[in-house]
Amino acid sequence: MAEKMKLEIVTPYSKVLDELVDEVTTTGKLGEFSVLPGHAPFLTSLSIGELCYKKDGVAVCMAHNWGYFEINDDKIIVLVETAERSDEIDVERAKAALGRAEDALKKLVPEDKQFKVYEAALQRALIRMQVAGKAARK
Questions:
Q1: pTM: predicted TM-score of the whole model, two decimal places
Q2: pLDDT surpasses 70 at 1
């Protein structure tokens, strides 16, 4: 069994990460899951959430937008719309986005077409602030 896994995180704009890691935990559509070296192959979809990986005992966390996660032969490929490391997140911008989303949702009902859009914006802002808070605690 391998001791490391190759983790690649790719967005439509760039390859965000290409590292050998010890463990990966992220948020799938059905909940949080973790993988270790030697994990069985699988493919799943990701929701708005957090991805943390450990490399040499150090945890690094990222906020991500929807996408896909595949592991096969100790190689993980994560394809997501966006991915930001905790130290890259602009907390003030996330707070402003949170406020805009909350204000818009107060004026809408779940049947409105824009409701899901603002609900997703609210989720993204909350995750970004949560992940950014982890960088501040290091």
A1: 0.84
A2: no
Which residues lie across from 89 on neighbouring strands?
Answer: none
Q: Which domains does the chain have, with CATH numbers?
A: 5-86 (2.60.15.10), 89-137 (1.20.5)
Residues 6+ apart with CB under 8 A from 44: 28, 29, 30, 33, 68, 69, 70
Q: Is 124 left (phi over 0), alpha (psi -120 to 50) or beta?
A: alpha
In DSSP notation, 36-94 reads -TTPPPEEEEEEEEEEEEEETTEEEEEEE-SEEEEEETTEEEEEES-EEEGGG--HHHH
Average pLDDT of the segment spanning 53-63: 92
The CB-based long-range contact list for 126-130 (8 Å cut-off, 24+ gap) reads 126/98, 127/48, 127/49, 127/50, 127/63, 128/63, 128/84, 128/89, 128/91, 128/94, 128/97, 129/89, 129/91, 129/94, 129/95, 129/98, 130/50, 130/63
